[in-house]
Amino acid sequence: MSDLSPIVLFVYNRPDHTRQTIDALAANFLANESELFIYSDAPKNQEAVEGVQAVRSLIKNVQGFKSITIIERDKNWGLANSIIDGVTSIVNKYGKVIVMEDDIVTSSFFLQFMNKALNYYEAEKRVWHISGWNCLDNVDGLEDVFFWRTMDCWGWATWNDRWQYFEKDVNKLIHEFKKKDIYKFNMNNSENIWWQVLANKAGKINTWAVFWYATIFKNKGLCLNPTISFVKNIGLDGTGINCVSTPMYLNKHLSEKDINFNSIIVKENDDAFKRIVLHYRKYKKNIFIRIINKANNLIKSKIKK
Questions:
Q1: pTM of the model
Q2: Which domains, and CATH codes, for the chain?
């Protein structure tokens, strides 16, 4: 496949996760034809020094790619700032980019899927984002890929003429979004994504992904997702930033399939969207029931005492 996109990988202080991520990526069919850029953030505190040093030692020995460029930050940027800066730098130079973090394990067809989608939809300006991940466990009857409104960032790609509109202005965003916008933004209130905007406003978190989603949403863009995921997140073990372990995000198996985009209609897939909404509501209900049961058991145990 000609005209391959560069890959940008952001790493920090988790050598075991990073090793699995790189090993899986290097096993992809197009890895040896792809340029890899690795951004290594500096330690935030003394506790992170050992992990950062171990990761930097690891990435200096990476092989299996056409070229490898390592950018070692000399101060701690934080994940959000590092991603915004790194993605902007690479996508402006190459016109497109595939973005990875240090806890994303890919199937061997991931790079093929991402590059094929980037080339196929480059001129289709309604498409803003390509995702390698999907949460659905019920995929019967769905086509290989689908479009919808929501952005997933566990292995993703975009083009510079879309990314140029990225804006992280929390005050402006809160002012612009009305109740009906927030309802749709929250996948018809099946998930509370808007809280991330409010948490950024309050200074409780510092993230980037929700603002990229908001940028796409405001511009009525579409996101392409595979029906069966090409990636899995191995960072849902308490080691990641802003990640929570829950079965709703776990993938049983990864796709090892070449995808044909010719029959896909470029509009939000109502069937896939409804299934995702049900998927989120099902797990939210199960989590709520577990919380209630745990609370009841605590009350009963206190009464017995």
A1: 0.89
A2: 7-304 (3.90.550.10)
